[in-house]
TrEMBL record:
Gene3D superfamilies: 3.40.50.360. Coiled coil: none annotated. SUPFAM superfamilies: Flavoproteins. It comes from Streptomyces hiroshimensis. InterPro entries: Flavodoxin/NO_synth (IPR008254), Flavoprotein-like_sf (IPR029039), FMN_Rdtase-like_dom (IPR005025). Residues 5-187 form the Flavodoxin-like domain. This is TflA.
Length: 417
């Protein structure tokens, strides 16, 4: 099916508009229906770009979005943020889930906050329940060439496209090429996410989900089991795997042998290669994921080309000591690594009431052990939802037919289509 891609940009001097035009052309080259949408300036002092003005409702129309904002003080510009904030009513009504999003930015200084800007965009998109695609090594079926101009032009930036703004608002040829490539890539992922097709060679097979968890943390292990159960609910074949290694203290607190259940098999990189979708669970250590998980992720990356996570949906869940002790920062730092690996980050977002009930962390399920070593019923339900979501996203990106109604087929969207 033809994907619909909206390229939403804010630009005063022309850099972002030139990149947006190139991304739109790349998406069209993939066969997408494309709209180039201008975010209005605060005071209308900027140039009158001859494009449609972006409205929050336009997000409903799009299967995929290229978000394109200049870097202002290491963040998106205020007009761009106003556009994002304008989607609140649609978000609240649950209408913005499962869009595929990528980002582009420009800054004067090569290291002037552009990564921060892209990551901030993705944080907002994750609140919608969007999937985020960076410019990391492309996976199977991904139209972008990992050795192509997109990677070179991005200067190795795995989060999206970030270019150096020229004084006259012009854009270098290789930056334009990189934007074109990113638009084409986004359209490809959006097409697969929307329709589940074209079917891959193993389209009839069950979806495969690997859930990896740090072995010594009982809370995380229980969340992992529930996440695996959620994926199985959707018919997925699941591998529940444990990570061991120095740096993770034993933290049981439960009666009997650490939780009583037989230990899962130790994880191997082949478990990630096997999967269509991967979920990682970890205790939070110093505001970030535990060392064994980081070590495992780093071990996956080949010296060149895509690794086993490239092009696959991935997300995480965590346990912390106390409610505000790093659950968000750990998940966000995990997302950075996943983008480096070329994964499509598919966090829970606010895609189900259970996310709110479990404390409302849109980046991944989290449980604070100050509430008990056993995860709450709400946290377990959120982990199960995350597992279902991983299975569904894996099905879609691998081209398997998705059972039941599509996630995007809300009555309002049917009206708008
Ligand atoms: C209010 C403001 C804040 C800015 N902050 C940064 C910054 O943090 N880092 C940086 O390198 N450039 C910064 N810049 C430069 C812009 O990133 C640059 O002008 C912009 O990317 C050009 O995009 P445009 O041509 O689409 O308007 C800032 C510019 C403005 C107006």
């Amino acid at each position: 099916m033809t994907p619909r891609v909206a390229v939403v940009y804010h630009s005063r001097r022309g850099t972002m508009r030139a990149l947006a035009e190139a991304a739109a052309a790349g998406a069209r080259a993939h066969g997408a229906r494309v709209r180039l949408l201008r975010v209005a300036d605060d005071d209308e002092a900027g140039p009158a770009w001859p494009d449609e003005e972006a409205r929050p409702e336009d997000v409903l129309w799009a299967d995929g979005l290229v978000l394109a904002s200049p870097t202002y003080f290491g963040n998106v510009s205020a007009p761009f943020k106003r556009f994002l904030d304008g989607t609140t009513k649609l978000w609240w009504d649950g209408l913005l889930t499962d869009r595929v999003v990528t980002g582009m930015t420009a800054s004067t200084c090569p290291h002037g906050g552009r990564e921060a800007t892209l990551l901030t965009m993705y944080q907002s998109a994750h609140h919608w329940g969007a999937w985020t695609v960076g410019a990391g090594p492309a996976g199977p079926g991904d139209p972008a060439d990992p050795a192509g101009p997109a990677r070179r032009g991005a200067g190795g930036n795995p989060y999206g496209l970030a270019v150096t703004a020229l004084r006259d608002g012009g854009v270098a040829e290789h930056d334009r090429d990189a934007a074109w490539e990113l638009g084409r890539r986004l359209a490809g992922v959006a097409a697969r996410a929307r329709s589940g097709g074209p079917p891959g060679p193993d389209a009839a097979a069950r979806s495969r989900v690997t859930v990896v968890h740090c072995a010594e943390d009982e809370t995380v292990r229980l969340l992992a089991q529930e996440c695996a159960a959620g994926a199985r609910e959707l018919g997925a074949e699941v591998r529940l795997r444990r990570l061991t290694g120095p740096g993770v203290r034993r933290e049981s607190g439960l009666p009997g042998r650490a939780g009583g259940a037989p230990a899962a098999a130790a994880v191997d990189p082949a478990d990630v290669a096997w999967a269509d979708s991967v979920v990682f669970g970890t205790p939070v250590r110093a505001g970030a994921v535990a060392a064994p998980l980081l070590g495992f992720l780093q071990s996956l990356e080949p010296p060149a080309g895509p690794g086993p996570l490239a092009g696959k949906p991935a997300s995480g869940f965590v346990s912390t000591a106390r409610p505000h002790a790093g659950s968000e920062s750990a998940l966000l730092s995990l997302h950075h690594v996943l983008h480096h690996c070329g994964a499509v980050v598919v966090p829970p977002g606010y895609t189900d009431p259970v996310v709110f009930e479990a404390g409302g962390n849109p980046y991944g399920t989290s449980h604070a052990r100050s509430a008990g070593v056993l995860p709450t019923v709400q946290a377990l339900a959120a982990a199960r939802h995350q597992g279902r979501r991983a299975a569904l996203a894996g099905d879609r990106l691998r081209g398997r037919p998705v059972p039941g109604a599509g996630l995007l087929d809300t009555p309002l969207e049917k009206e708008l289509t």
